[in-house]
């Protein structure tokens, strides 16, 4: 493998796959490859992004059907190998449904589909997804979701807090998420799920560059 | 092989806020319905399924409920089963 390649997974109903690819290739010069959800061969990618959208029309629950795709079945070994997986919005929902991350995402408290920029506190630098040399503790990223209310039981929340697995918290909770949670990692730190869209904040021309660091960190070992 | 009609009910756990239920409760009150103390929305899934007896079918339905029909982090389920 000559170039570090990020696999961008495409489900029927994904709609942020091209945005992610554009941000990685156009803004960061990182090579990408689209991975159709029926593929289970992950041998030629070094990291994976599960993009936003409405996989399988969000039928039953967000991410519930996507979880059974051959690609998600193959993801277990990929994650165990220590390679990095980033789930954005619907990708985060899929990661919780598939059990890679704890908790669940359900309908926003106010039932609105919220499309807005939000301020986020970087809580943990686990996995190095947001660690910008300690310079910036608050970032601004866009959100666009109807079902982004993170929910978990109190034992899980304690575990998230104790093990520093909460990556991002909303400064002003938009959707009723438990503990203002906007993003979490697994214990190893190589899997991050978040509701905000870093790929939509990669160029000043579209309102900010606070998402660049997270996408760039896909190449970390 | 026996055939069964199964009705699965999936509900948000009592501890999980149900905004759609709250909105529907609010609309119900606007309609003039009195005395509504609580209103929560769930899903009902109808399955026709074959198997060697009720126990085998229950095993299959339990698996479906646990792994697919419900997300047990936020939802509970129950089902009724009728031999056809």
Explain the overall architecture:
- By secondary structure, chain A is of the alpha/beta class.
- Helix content of chain A is 20%, strand content 26%.
- Chain A is globular, with a radius of gyration of 16 Å.
- The mean pLDDT of chain B is 95.
- The longest helix of chain B has 17 residues.
- A 3-stranded antiparallel beta sheet of chain B has the order 2-1-3.
- Chain B has a single domain, classed as Phosphoribosylformylglycinamidine synthase subunit PurS (Mth169, Chain: A), CATH 3.30.1280.10.
- By secondary structure, chain B is an alpha+beta fold.
- Chains A and B meet through loops of A and helix 1 of B.
- Chain B: It catalyses: N(2)-formyl-N(1)-(5-phospho-beta-D-ribosyl)glycinamide + L-glutamine + ATP + H2O = 2-formamido-N(1)-(5-O-phospho-beta-D-ribosyl)acetamidine + L-glutamate + ADP + phosphate + H(+).
- Chain B: Part of the FGAM synthase complex composed of 1 PurL, 1 PurQ and 2 PurS subunits.
Features:
heterodimer, A: 221 residues, alpha/beta, nine-stranded mixed sheet, two-stranded antiparallel sheet, 5 helices, 11 strands, 20% helix, B: 84 residues, alpha+beta, Mth169, Chain: A, three-stranded antiparallel sheet, PurS-like_sf (chain B), ATP-binding (chain B)
């Amino acid at each position: 493998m000559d170039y570090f390649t990020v696999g961008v997974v495409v489900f029927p109903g994904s709609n942020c796959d091209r945005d992610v690819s554009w941000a990685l290739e156009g803004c960061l010069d990182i090579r990408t490859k689209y991975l159709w959800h029926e593929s289970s061969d992950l041998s030629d990618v070094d990291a994976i992004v599960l993009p936003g959208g409405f996989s399988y029309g969000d039928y039953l629950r967000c991410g519930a059907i996507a979880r059974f795709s051959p690609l998600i079945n193959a993801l277990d070994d990929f994650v165990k190998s220590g390679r990095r997986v980033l789930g954005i919005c619907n990708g985060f929902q899929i990661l919780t449904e598939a059990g890679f991350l704890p908790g669940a995402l359900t309908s926003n408290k106010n039932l609105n589909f919220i499309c807005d920029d939000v301020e986020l506190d970087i809580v943990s630098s686990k996995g190095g997804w947001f660690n910008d040399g300690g310079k910036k503790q608050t970032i601004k990223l866009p959100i666009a979701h109807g079902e982004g209310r993170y929910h978990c039981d109190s034992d899980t929340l304690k575990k998230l807090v104790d093990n520093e697995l909460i990556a991002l918290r909303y400064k002003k909770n938009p959707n009723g998420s438990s503990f203002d949670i906007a993003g979490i990692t697994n214990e190893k730190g190589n899997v991050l799920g978040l509701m905000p869209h870093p790929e939509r904040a990669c160029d000043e021309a579209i309102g900010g560059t606070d998402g660049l660091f997270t996408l760039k960190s896909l190449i970390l070992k | 092989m026996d055939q069964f009609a199964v009705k699965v009910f999936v509900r948000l756990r009592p501890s999980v806020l149900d905004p759609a239920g709250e909105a529907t409760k609010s609309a119900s009150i606007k309609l003039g319905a009195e005395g509504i103390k609580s209103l929560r929305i769930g899903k009902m899934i109808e399955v026709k399924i074959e198997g060697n007896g009720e126990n085998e079918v229950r095993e299959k339905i339990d698996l479906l409920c646990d792994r697919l029909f419900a997300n047990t982090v936020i939802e509970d389920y129950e089902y009724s089963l009728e031999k056809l």
